[in-house]
Structures
1.
Amino acid sequence: MTTANGLVLYVRSRAVPLTLGRLAAIMAFAAYGAHSVDVFLDPQRRAPVVVLAPVFAAAVIGSSLYAAADELDRTAVRPWWPPRLAHLLGLTALAAVVPALTVIGDAEGFGAAAVVRNTLGSVGVTAVAAVLVGARLSWLPAFGYLSAVYVAVQGAHGRAATVWAWPLQPGAQPGSWAAALTVFAAGAVLYALRGARPERLPV
Amino acid sequence: MNDVNNPEADRTADPTGQVTDAAPQVTDPALKNVTDPTVRVTDLTVRHRRTTALNGVGLDFGTGVHGLLGPNGAGKTSLIRVLATVAPPASGRVEILGREPRGHRELAAIRRELGYLPQEFGYYPGFTVREFVAYVAWLKEMPAEDSPAAVERAVERVGLHDRIDTKLRTLSGGMIRRVGIAQAIVNDPKVLLLDEPTAGLDPEQRVEFRRLLRELGERCTVVVSTHLVEDVAAACTGVTLIDSGRVAYRGTPDSLVALGDAESVAEPGPALGDNAIERGYTTALRAHRERALEGAAR
């Protein structure tokens, strides 16, 4: 078993091909959404696409963190953090960059920069959730947080709001980037070191 | 060496009145001439949240097949998981092949020589038998040039060579279990840990599996957790009975049978079991519980 063959088996064990297919569908949906609304009248009409596409992409990436043979994986001789980190970073890069290309323009508002930021933040929340609650439910906290922010952000002002309401901030807002990057870094490090929480603990 | 049939000799009541294994070095009778056991646990305690799964257990195992018996929730799986290095103990010392599983280097060295079949082993339905066993070989960092032959050999030993390129999703439960055994032996482990390996196997497959166990036990340390006392009678060189997180009995299948035979004279009838080893199991279990009650009362 060469390293390359082993990595192919690892990629298949995490259903990465299926995940890529799902991400492609989300990207197509995002591209359609970004160009079907009348953005030339009001660039803010892209906001739903800029917010929702990253959350859906993060949910799909989160489901790929599930390991059916987790108990056997834990007896591995090789260190787990390199494949875990490569897995998360690779899919996140793809999910951030490709949709961002479909919403080029309006870098200050709801454009490519906001898509990249929201993808990083959403994947970060999802990765933390995978470590804490397991991969299968890892999508839930990101959706819950986004929904809470969506409701609470109406009328919220000030510097703090640019941090906690990072998914709904314009792309050039530094506080929102700091929050999203921090969450992503925390999620990536936690997941690389711990992996997704086992979902059926033997007794 | 302690009297293996008299674990009471090791027991004292702790300040809370609970009976604990104060000096829990219970040595397997199969190791009488072995000065350097491959697996040794000392004063091992394992907790799951507020539940104590193992309470100050001391055991050692050498080359041979060692059956772990005990009721549900006794702590058998907890012991196997600690030995498999997938669960950390709350306290106590674990030594496998002369190494303590601490730090990446020691863990890697142990895991290279370890085979493990969990009670519920997850698998990837889209993998073929060959791919799944090869995946585990890759996890074990087996040399690339040795891996294909080792995979074929392991699959052949469990009698699935004619299904080696079949997808796992199309296999029966018993066949999946045999794939699990194949992955556990792919690296020719020195320590093999099997948790309920015969669950789902039909009688013919179980007979074959016992033959494989006996063969493996000639060269490596095999620890088998099971509910099936007849598997222990047929394939094991040593028996450890665990109850409520403590070692209730250690001996050989023959000594357990003798215990059952002796008890059937005192208490005839099927109440203790339908055969001698079942009676021995029930007798040893009841004796342990009585001792525990007496210890608690003191």
2.
Amino acid sequence: MKFTIGWLKEHLDTKKKDSELIEKLTDVGLEVESFENLSSGLDSFKVAKIINTEQHPNADRLRICDVDIGLDNTVKVVCGAPNAKKDLLTIYAGPGSIIPKNNMKLTVSKIRGVTSYGMLCSESELNLSDESKGITELKISKYSDKIGKNFFNSSSEKVVDLSITPNRPDCLGVRGIARDLAAAGVGKLKKISKNNIKKNGSQKIKVSIKKEKNQGCTVFGSCLIEGVTNQESPRWLKEKIVSLGQKPISAIVDITNYVMLDLNRPLHAYDADKINREIIVRNSIKGETFNALDNKEYKLDDDMCVISDQSGVLGLGGIIGGTRSGTEIKTKNILLESAYFIPRSIRKTSKLLNVDTDAKFRFERGVDPQSIELGLSKAAELISEICGGKISNFDIQKTDKYDKNKIKFNLSLFEKITGFKINDNEIIKILTDLGFEVSKKKLELDLKIPTWRPDITEPIDIVEEIVRIKGYENIETLEPEKTKIKDTLNREQKLFHFLQRSVASKGYFETITWSFTDSKINKFFKENLKEVKIVNPISSDLDVLRNSIFTNLTFYLKKNLDRGFKDISLFEIGPIFKDSKPGEQLTVIGAIKSGKVSRLNWNEKDRTVDIFDVKKDVIQTLVEAGYDKQSFFVREKSPSYYHPGKSGSIYLDKDEIDPVAYFGEIHPNIINKLDIKTESLVGFEIYMDYLKENKIKLKDLKPNFEYSDYQKSERDFAFVVDKNFKAQDLIEIISSIDKNLIRSIKIFDIYEGENIPHDKKSIALNVTIQSSEKTLEETDLEKINKLIISTVETKSGAKIRS
Amino acid sequence: MSDIKKIKDEYLNKLDSDLNIESVNKIKTELFGKNGQISNFFKSLGSLPNDERKKFASDLNSIKEELLDKINSKLQEIETKAINSKLENEKVDVTLPEREINQGKIHPVSQVIDEISSIFSEIGFSVEEGPDVENEHNNFTALNTPDNHPARDMHDTFYLDNNKGLLLRTHTSPVQVRTMLNGKPPFKIIAPGRTYRSDSDQTHSPMFHQVEGLHIDKDINMGHLKGCLNYFIKSFFEVDKIKMRFRPSHFPFTEPSAEVDIGYELKDGKIVIGEGDRWLEILGCGMVHPNVLKNVKVNPDKYQGYAFGIGLDRLGMLKYGINDLRAFFETDYRWLNHFGFDPLDVPSNYRGLSR
């Protein structure tokens, strides 16, 4: 909402400095977006007189003008306007000026060999009108003593731009802003002067509001003004319109706009001669069309509030008028509309048709339903003043009364909510200044709410009014209480933060990527999850919610590879989506690793990253999170986006149904399709939701400190087994032979090749044997040795390698 | 006696010369071997008369000790020499690079969430979370923002169905709704998380982070709100003094509502939070609207309190001097490395928030 300080002062009687007013605006909740000196651009335009003209030596149509701009010497300006003649009073723009129409900055320049110091301006160049044929001609009677003075006398005018919150439609008019400031004590709200327009005869065009379900219009006020001479607006009005960055059109349109900006009272002017007999306010019928003033044709749905005549739709009530009944410069008779439209109806229609206008913006938020006559009379007065014409009586059709709403306000509520006290009289004064009718009954106020405040419906709204006008700085700052109701983090949250740092500590960079992604990449990783489309994506390559963390990780990995990085470790912890309902999401850690280990290293040989790098990271992360490695179980099963032979899944226990993690190489087909260029790409995923709570807590585990000081023995074995026999099974077989004696098993070699059948492999392991009761004798060791060999051979079909 | 003295002097002399281990061992055998000279004297002790024996034995023992000491120290000397000369050849270039360790990093947003959780933990708040996909009711209607309300236009919403029933939450406020519906007052929570708006330009990202705060009890008023935020901002920016300004504003779910500005100044083009005469808007807050309380089955006549919502990414940008919001989510390895945090830097109350 833009307005000038001068305009504000038409409503506010104040001696305060501009800076104080600006500060106060912010203090009462009208946020100042900008406060700019309007003159900065416009005070370089001077009233000037052409003293002499001579023909340009090199151009037939150009003249060289000697121009008096109020200085000792005249300036020479090259001008092409046919009306540039001796003694003409016009507007001069010096070098450095910025022409409002095209934002061009003037410089001293040579035009066909003759230097021109500035420019003489047409009205169109100054956005004063569309007149562009010649330079501005100023009336001698008015301007002859003003040569050298600023043409725009608004040189001290400052424009304020407020960001008005949706609850304050009243402040979409200058008067509403003035009222707030007056209540806050920086001035007095001026009374609206009683106008004394003469109204003659009845409004001859019949108006009716059709009784329909969902009728969006409840009051339709109108008056007919006959015999007007529409014309350009007078300067004061043009300047007002221009100062807000809008373009003057014609007196009638400018006046309706002016009243809207002044009082937040949108009006519409019809060319009365173009109305076919009568005005009918009704609901639209599906398929009706009309051409609107924004030069678009709108096709209407059912139940949109339209203003129509016997020929059809004239306009969308409260949103936009139509071209068929629009006023023109030659318009003689006008019908002025001042109506009330229900916000909900306005919002629904404008959303469906995707139209946004000043009127719609205001009606959607709520225009004062009792401002209908005020708006009509203010506009009618101005129109008859400027354009002449005969004003009819006002015709008001209404289906609703809009009495003031009442609230009972318990005075103690103020302190209860804000924590500080102000006295009752001050409360009453603030509310009265804001336009409330107040009567006090003991501890309660009976309030009548001004009709321009549709946002106020209950006592808490009154508290807000009082505290914002009194000032938020009066609220005390109370020391925060430290009482705790619950633990800060629950188990899942603790786990989340722990895993996050645990993975990062293994050399991965944490990233955060968008929860949505490109469906073309997502399809590689989506498995059997449902694709969740975004109806209105920000771009077509961010069109679905991600089904996997890998979708974005691979995308960004590629970007980093393209930046020249080779050995990259990235992870993200966050949501993936199974379906589109709230809660159908899982929290997953996804990590990927590319390139080599020890690349360009002076003392270690480099190698590509492989599945056992990520297996180490994922297992260690789970161990650090408190899970027992001894019970982990690894299966070959893994999602299709992993390499089928080089990937696996981890279960917390052999009997668990859901794996808690996957690890492995990313499927080479996907790497190809995504055009990722790296020596190797591996990754892992941990599904937080499947990480069950540990039954045994650390504090329960710690007291069980058991150890053995008896001598340990180590024995090495090599078994020849089938090639696809799993090491995990071999370890399981051996360790279950005697859990008390067999302390650890380490695989130290895997061998395939010479001396071993081609469908077999040799697994060499080292077994540590130790008793917690005695030092084992050679015979005991021999016994367990034999038992290991025989058990393995029977259970796995392996042969001990001799 | 003179014999053994002679032997002693002779061998001490020998041992002073430059010898190798073998020659020292040979000397040792010559003296103390089975037929060593000293050993033989010990064997002869029995044949001596009683009065002489004692004296001779004592002399012999002291000579033995002296010689053995000399031999051992000679051996040690040779050993040390040998090791030293070996080490001479084992010298490495200690300025060569160490073995590689891959340093991981925590994203600044995660770090900021941990910092904030730590600060609010100190004053009794617990952390709640909610889903990223919300229904229209929790995101808007329950928060006193009905469909026909223009305040909905303040949020550019991503929808997941054509009826606009399912959406990506536009703020963390639906967590308020979920928390209050699932529990009984008092409530004292913060809710950090991802939020989404279909808005993308230099200063807007379609995804960003917020932290929601909610404190509902019997007598929580705007003074508590001010106190809580004052404490939070001071702690977060790790400054003793903070200039804060509460400006009236409007949010459908709070009333009265406020926007909070903090003071700052520019020093060498950098933002310094705390003092100065410039204002920076950092959060929105207010007293929870009675309609919201009614919608979540909390009696507004008995309970009241405040809520606030803060943009987490922006807080992080201010604290750590990050200029570009979009970079947060672009996974540039260089950026992550530069702005990321060591995983061991866990913010906590007792060790301080940051190094």
3.
Amino acid sequence: MKSDDIYVLRDLGKFQSVTEVLHDRGLTCRYRILDSQILVANRYISRTLKVPLASKIFYYQKLRIVEGIPKSIEKDYILYDKVKGIEQEDLSAKSFYAILKERFGYTTQRSQEEILIVNASPEEQKLLNCQDKELLMIKGTTYLGDTDPFEYFEIVSISDFYRFRSVTEHDGV
Amino acid sequence: MMEYDALYVQLMNSIKEKMLRGEYQIGDKLDSERVMAQQYGINRLTVRKALKMLEEQGFVKAQRGSGTYVVRLPQGPTQLDQSSQSAVSLSMLIRQSGYRSFRRVISFHKLPAEGTLTRKFPGCRQVFEMVRLSFVNEEPYAVQKTYIPAEPFWDAERYDFAEGSLYEYLDLHGRSPQKIESYLKIAFPPREYARLLKLSSDRKVFLFEYLGYDRQQTLVEYTLSYYLPEYTSFRYQVEKPRQVHM
């Protein structure tokens, strides 16, 4: 399969994880964990997750490899109190959301995301095996319910890996 | 007994509704406090409160000595019923401050509907093609190429699309878009648009494809927009449909 054919179409009318979208398209996906640690929330994370400064946060970073080609680098931040023991899980074996559901019973209900184009760092170019100067970035916060944020993530990907579609209808007053 | 929102809330919702409908675009200047107070027959302090709240919510930005400008559009209405999932829209955000903005029409002409345009506008022999260049802080940040069918919008050549909004023009004909389908990806812009945007040939932009359908589900607007990344980002929300319990 050509690299151009490997992409995720995020349909905003559907609530699906990236792994689910790839699976529906019959594309193989695996992960390489780059980092995993318990750290303390800095000001940005504490504001984003609405937790006290210096709260313990579970953080991990992984490389998503689709059809054998590195496509995105994903970072995740969750309040450690909500996922105690997660550091013992093999995060490369299955999707993070599958682990959250199976081990802790969490299912996210909503996600607010922002898409940007950013300059690629040399490290990102090396991990993604590309010479592109620009990459796509998606920053987002997921929620279990209506109010408090559950998880903050940042995805940096090859620029043509994600496409987006939305359909809206007005009441026509 | 019916309950009414406070006046400033009603005004805020009215302004947001205009943004949703495309009557206000990113970079557009809102009417002054004095004009809005007169127009709606309300106290100027009420208008000021509504604008302040909109600014706190990130939709507008007040520029001292200049006015209040739209900087972000609200997301489209979420429609839920028992059978369909939420429909949410991509909302564009201008990333840099200082929002003096204007638009220039680069070209406007009528041409035969051929190739892709025949498929997009079936039964249509001619379309109007309009290319506009948008500026923020005197710098170009977006190019938009728009097609509308020529037959229903026969008087488009007489309308000033640099000052007036396309939505307003379509609404005058009772054909404003009621259903909007949009696509977003990252791409290289056409060479002539890269030049207009003062972009080097190796730089990518946001490519936003917009299809607006009227009440009869007829395509009335097809627009390809190319946005510079240093000025724009896009936001959206995805949500699991809520279970309705009978």
4.
Amino acid sequence: MQKLVVIGAGMASGRVLEHLFEAEAPYEVTLFNAEPRGNYNRIMLSPVLSGEKSFAEIVTHGDAWYDEHAVTCRFGEKVTAIDRARKVVVGENGAVPYDKLLIATGSAPFIIPLPGHDLPGVVAYRDLEDTNAMIEASAKPGSRAVVIGGGLLGLEAAAGLRLRGMDVTVLHLMGHLMERQLDEAAGYLLKQDLEKRGIDVMLNASTKAIEGDGKVERVVLEDGTVLEADIVCMAVGIRPAGQIGADAGLECGKAIKVDAHMRTSDPDIFAVGECVEFDGNLFGLVAPLYDQARVVAKTLRGEDDVFTMRELSTKLKVTGCDLFSAGDFAQGEGREDIVFRDPARGIYKRLVIEDDRLVGAVLYGDTADGNWFFGLIKDETCIEEMRDTLIYGPAFQGGGAAGQDPLAAVAALPPEAEICGCNGICKNQIVDAIGAGANTLETLRAQTKASASCGTCTGLVEQLLAVTLGDSFETGGAKPVCGCTELTHEDVRRLIKARALRSQTAVWQELGWLTVNGCPSCRPAINFYLLAEWPLDYQDDAQSRFVNERNHANIQKDGTYSVMPRMWGGMTSADELLAIATAAKKYDAAVKVTGGQRIDLLGIEKDDLPAIWADLNAAGMVSGHAYSKGLRTVKTCVGTDWCRFGTQDSTGLGIKLEKKLWGSWTPHKVKMGVSGCPRNCAEATCKDVGVICVDSGYQIGVAGAAGMDLRETKRLVDVATEDEVIEWTTAFVQLYRENAKYLDRPYKWVDKVGLDWVKDVLSDPAERAALNERFEISQSVYRKDPWAERATEPEARKFQPLADLTMEPAE
Amino acid sequence: MTWTDVGALSDIPLRGARTVKTASGCVAIFRTGEEELFATSAICAHKRGPLAEGMVHGRKVTCPLHSWTYSLETGEAQGADKGSIATYPVKYEEGRVLLKLGALAEQAAA
């Protein structure tokens, strides 16, 4: 009999021993384990944590089994060294000689060295001790847990702790959960499901410190958020634990290197599991470990077998979260996506195809076809013939395919979803009216008033008719936003509000977007709709903005930028002009006086933008937003300050309007003018909002244009005081922000909804006050200088190249 | 052929890009997914627009000047536009972005 020593009693070595004893094996086995117990099914710790299973139920090899196979168990004893010269393993309680040695030391959890990481109450999620510590913490009523890491392990810990009745918050550094296995859309659905079970999920959450007096009490994030915690579970990843092999002089990379027979650089020493590196690969999932175990057992018995890498799939073991991911959806030449979403059932499927072969799949909500897709990936089946229906699964192959239903998003709306905002009409009222015989848009409008006012919900009402009546109704064929959706801009706006969609990912999923993450047409529109609807909740997405709004300057044909500081009401001063002249010289700018009463500096390199902004900021100037779909200028004449014909302080009023409205984002640009008398030197009558001062007060006109179209403003109202001008103008701008289609200037929007409707809404003082209030809430976020925020570090650095390698030798 | 560390992944915004200056020209590195990167020439084949300033959608970028759209995987212009940009090997490892410089010099020399 030869002596076999095994270091580590984990899942891999347990499986090796099982295979070894399947036939007569000429080995006397000694099994070391640092944990004070034998082999158990570590991946079943989740049900132990949640209380669905006991530890006894997940033990794979009990005392009787070890006795039966005459295994000498040295549990709770650490191995301190391997002496290869003498062929002995040195344990804490003495040495054991070996003929063959198997290292199965697995992995160790990675602990982020944050301040406080060593406080009692900070655990990993790796062994029974960790699990028991978490169970113990959950026994206290009202106790709170913070899980750091939103990967597979962290989410299982979170779900288990929640089932134990704890308040659980998951902190995840990345923008969506399980980013290794899932894409953004599936990550969004997973987050929704977890939140439904009462687990808080914080994304882009960077932990700064764990604090407490003698034990964990709270977790502090980089952004200053403080979370109370009785226990902190750090589940951010694992590292191979192969130090014992490295210390013994075995060849190591990131772990102990093995060949296809699982042999290390010493022919008498084998290694298996998470502590090995094979062909540059490390291992964390159980399937390849079992393959390795089989190979080791056979090799030890003198039979021939080799280990090969194979495709892996992941299923999450959190009850009720149905997700599946397999293969590779990372970069590669010539890959294409097929996406299917069913918002009503919370389903998302994405297939990645390369050269007529399926290479990756992500499924959420319905994973029934997961194994079929996995089979196609593993077998590299040619899918050319079934490509069109592939995403519907095996049931559709050879049969007729159901196309994606463009009405799915509307069909999925809950009955209480508000369709017509003007008249407060919900889906169920409209469906009831259709059921009662209103089968045309006109009769429906007459009976319910839905879409009878501003008309922007017409598309949705028509779709409801189509959903309810089926083929017997034909819609007016309104134009969709872009190729990513069948919905119109107006539909999307209404649905964002009605369904409380607060992120782009939510819009894409819940409204059934046909692409992974939109296109350059819909992304800026959706970004605007979200920030207009949820100013306090939604984080403006720079990557969904055209370059000018992202870089806060206007790009020119040669890739340089123009920089235009604000001149409130067209007024400036000698000091401002000196600063502008100095900057123009310093950055070698061309200087142009614009039609909006300001000065443009042209030809600025991107790298120089933060510096020129800092110079202009230092002279008290801020961005003129000459690049934005937002308030541009308020052009004025000199009014009663200087002009012998002036009737009011037009300059002062212009400055007040500009200070009120600057920084706000609007569906398209907004230009204003205030003229001090009907001679109209500020050309106010071709602006989006133009004010003409007269002796008795102010005439407010709206919906002018002087671009592709030429329009004279139409009179909105005449008022007596400056305050009223500001109140009415703000209300008009907010109504435009809340209702207009992205890229419609006010005149186009007013053409669609009718000036009478605008007047109707704004003539109600309560409505004007509410619009003003909502505008102010939005401005609490956006009324600030975007230049000042980017002129200093760390933001300024983002305007420089990531790296300058011009001095690097290129071999 | 060596991989050169050009910066942290977190310095490239999701669905955004950053440039890297090299002796053989300016390279744009695009981040299309949490851990998915592409590298191409930073200059549009049409009128030399700065592609790193374009909108990134799917595995494509649209030039900010005249909306030419390129596949980041192949470098080919999409739709009716005809033209292409060079693509380069780039990868992500343990939080860092690695660019293969040798490939650049070769293409510049060719």
